[in-house]
Every structure is written in C-alpha cells, then in structure tokens.
C-alpha cells in the first residue's frame, strides 16, 4: 500500500509547482503591461499639472474658464504655453523681434558670467532643434575604454576648430551615455574609421542603454549583410597583419 501512495504524493508537487509557475508568469506579464502604461500616464499627468499650476494663475480672473466652470480644465496651461511660444516665434521673425533679440544679446554680451551660459544654451538648442542637424540621429559602436570593449555612442556632429586641427585624422564628436540615466555621459572624439554604424534606430539604442542591456533590439539587417559586418577589435586586426 505504501508503494501505491508514494507515486500520487510525488506527482502532486509538480502540479502545485506548475500552478505557481503559471501564476508567477501571469504576475510578471501584468507588471510588464501595466508598469510602462502607468509610469507614462503618471509622468504626462505630472508635467501637465506642473505647467497648469504655473501658467493658469497668470490668467486674469475674468478670462480664466475655471472660474465659470464647476470643474477644472486639465491641460489648459499647456495649450496656452504652446500658443504663447508660437506667438513669440512669430514675433521674433519680424523686424521688431529681430531688433529686440539683437538688443538682448548685446546686453548679455556685457554680463561676465551669464553670457557664457546664454551662448552655450542657445548654441546647443539651435544645434538640436535645427532640421538640418544630424545630432543624436545615428547610433554607433566604438571601442571604449580599451580595445576589445564596446559601447553605444551617438553622433553629435563633426569635430571642428582646434580639436580637429590638432589631430591627424578626421574625428567625429560622440556622446557616450551612461546607464540608467542617458542624459549624463561624456564627450569623446573618435576617428571616423574607428566607428561602427548601427542599423538600429536611436530609440532602440536608448532603450538598450537605459535598461542596461535587458532590452535588446533584434537584428533587422538582411541575412546577407550580417557576415560582412562582423566587428573586430582594431588591436587584433593590427596583430594579425
């Protein structure tokens, strides 16, 4: 009788393990679905609430629709901010706007500390927002911090000025982001031939950096192109030669 009971008792454990495994899988799947949605909605709502709290109090009482409605109007401050920026852009495109901009820049040129900050921010924004700019529009692989180790970097522009004149080869400005915060990182100057262009989009490369490699985009290159683009260390190449 003991022999008949033991098989039934041993089979009950995998059954319980299978149920628990399925529940664990469903739980993880629920997190993967709800977490990105919840975080995105939360960040968007936090941004809208912050802008509304700063812009809405600037309305005169008689022009504020919230004084006439029994409920608040979320996003009203964002709409007003966007319209205001469009009007400012249209104003600066005219004669008076250009005159005001030249006068403001003339004032800033005489302020010792703020002029450097103002010019740097203006140049960065003009470079990023310009339609013809190639900044952060291509992801590449580069060997760093030593030969045989690779990092994902983003092209920010072609090196010019004193840095380029002091180097023998043509070098490119690369921004190497850090994990998990891609807004922090460092700038390196790399010869063009030492970079390996990636076919993945900038968005996919950022996902890989932010996740620390957990999220890895698939290789969407055609099958016949993959064997040709095998990345090898330049140090090993020179040794073999």
UniProtKB/TrEMBL annotation:
Residues 218-228 have a biased composition (Basic and acidic residues). Coiled coil: none annotated. It comes from the Bacteria. Residues 213-241 are annotated as: Disordered. Residues 231-241 have a biased composition (Polar residues). Keywords: Membrane, Transmembrane, Transmembrane helix. The chain crosses the membrane at residues 26-48, 68-93. InterPro entries: COV1-like (IPR007462). Pfam families: DUF502 (PF04367). This is DUF502 domain-containing protein.
């Amino acid at each position: 009788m003991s022999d008949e009971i033991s098989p039934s008792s041993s089979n009950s454990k995998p059954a319980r393990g299978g149920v628990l495994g399925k529940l664990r899988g469903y739980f993880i799947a629920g997190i993967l679905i709800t977490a990105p949605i919840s975080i995105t909605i939360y960040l968007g709502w936090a941004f809208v609430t912050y802008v509304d709290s700063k812009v809405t109090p600037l309305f005169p009482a008689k022009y504020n629709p919230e004084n006439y409605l029994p409920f608040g109007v979320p996003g009203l401050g964002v709409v007003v901010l966007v319209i205001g920026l469009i009007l400012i852009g249209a104003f600066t495109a005219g004669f008076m706007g250009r005159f005001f901009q030249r006068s403001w820049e003339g004032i800033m040129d005489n302020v010792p500390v703020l002029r450097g900050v103002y010019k740097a921010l203006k140049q960065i924004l003009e470079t990023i927002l310009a339609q013809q700019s190639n900044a952060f529009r291509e992801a590449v692989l580069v060997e760093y911090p030593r030969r045989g180790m690779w990092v994902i970097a983003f092209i920010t522009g072609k090196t010019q000025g004193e840095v380029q004149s002091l180097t023998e080869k043509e070098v490119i400005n690369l921004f190497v982001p850090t994990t998990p915060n891609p807004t922090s990182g460092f700038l390196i100057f790399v010869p063009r031939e030492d970079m390996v262009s990636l076919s993945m989009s900038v968005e996919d490369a950022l996902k890989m950096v932010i996740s620390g490699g957990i999220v890895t985009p698939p290789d969407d290159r055609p099958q016949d192109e993959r064997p040709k683009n095998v990345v090898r260390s330049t140090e090993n190449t020179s040794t073999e030669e």
